[in-house]
Amino acid sequence: MENRFLNRIKTFIDNGSLIDASMPVLVTISGGADSVALLRVLLELGYDCRAAHCNFHLRGEESDRDEHFVTKLCKHLDVPLAIKHFDVPKCMSERGVSMEMACRDLRYEWFAQLIKDKDCGCIAVAHHSDDNIETFMLNALRGTGIAGLTGMKPRNGNIVRPLLCVSRQDILAWLQWLGQDFVTDSTNLENDALRNRLRNRVLPAVYENFAGAHQSLLNTIDNMRQCNDLYQEAVGVMRNIVSDSYGDSLVVDLEIINSFDNRMMLLYEILKPLGFNASQCSNMLHSAVGRHFVSSSHVAVINRTTIDVSPCDSTDKSVNVINLDEEEIVSPIHLEIKHVGDTKFSPTMVDGKRVVAFSNDILQCSEVVLRHWREGDRFKPFGMKGSKLLSDLFTDLKLNEKEKNATWILEADGEILWVLGYRAASSFKVPCDSTQYLIISLVDFAPHL
Questions:
Q1: What are the CA-CA distances from residue 8 to residues 1, 13, 159 (Å)?
Q2: C-alpha to C-alpha distances, 254 to 49, 285, 300, 377, nearest whole angstrom
Q3: How confident is the prediction for the chain on average, in pLDDT?
Q4: Are residues 286 and 325 in the same domain?
Q5: Spatial distance between the Cα atoms of 284 and 252, rounded to a whole number of angstroms
Q6: Which of 52, 154, 249, 368 is 20 to 30 Å from 69 at the Cα level?
Q7: Over the stretch 204-239, which tens digit does the pLDDT of each residue have?
Q8: For residue 186, is it within any domain?
Q9: Which range marks the domain in which residue 207 is found?
């Protein structure tokens, strides 16, 4: 049992050149089964380990229990341990981010500092093959391109994942064989988060009904990774054929790009790193000469034979990350947020313009922002089939240029959810029998009607 498990991980580390054995490894440890196994594995394989534990104080006594367990374990294993206490609500307030993003930012900022202070070669995290499958499935369910189906990388900068080659079941069996205990995060057993529902409900049903599904999904992830590598190589070659770079500027030859069958996707892959979305790229190929498209960092101008892309002011203050866990947003526009947890929803509670409702699933989005509209923006209006360009909505509303430019957009993970004061989208719709949802009200706003 021991040799087979350890040898599989050692081979995975060696084949991917994940860890430089001449330098210490910073091992992140929560006290859970996965991170405890990661530390024990790397020690068994002879690596010089340093441990790091984050206490976010989000689970009361359970957080302190975890810290006590990790302290005791590292002392027993004679592993140097660094512990950091974080004020997550303060970070959320100062940065305007969700709890999940605050925790992620805080821990990785600290890890980056530790890796320098401790002179470590890499940061080892405990993601395993089941985590990889969950990431693949979540991305697929949200709607993603080929890159989103490649799963987690064994190495991402100085972060390495030595356990991606083994499953959660493998880890638990090895810990049991060792007689090594661990702690359990009670929130992992709750099904309010999308990943937890996938982990606790959906995937067990898949594995029960489809023999070999676990390995088949891992094979698919590996196939998609190889396909993406080939795809990116091809895009790189075609980028040089259809465009010329001049410093931070880019000129795309429309005649050449129009000769490709998949011209929109090719243009999107070329302009995506500059902040343009797929809808904008599609519209560029059908737009009149002189039309402008703006991303967060660049402006694209349609000419007769080219698309000229150049940097714009990257300090645009109209893009603001907000935190929907709060009860009020005062900047850049005043919003009141009511978190309902015990009242059955009724459509009469909202008007779809100044007062809108979203299911609690919106709280799982990694980034929610308020921004001004951009050329090419498209959304799916509530009660309407298909999607609609915001420019067409503004035309219907007879807004002038000043009014259009003053309009705010609520966007979550790149999807437009609300044109404030005018129209809500159909995403994150609240079922009529739901008792858990958000109602967001726009305060002191007089729209053009």
A1: 11, 9, 20
A2: 54, 8, 13, 22
A3: 88
A4: no
A5: 11
A6: 154
A7: 999 999 999 999 999 999 999 999 999 999 989 998
A8: yes
A9: 2-221
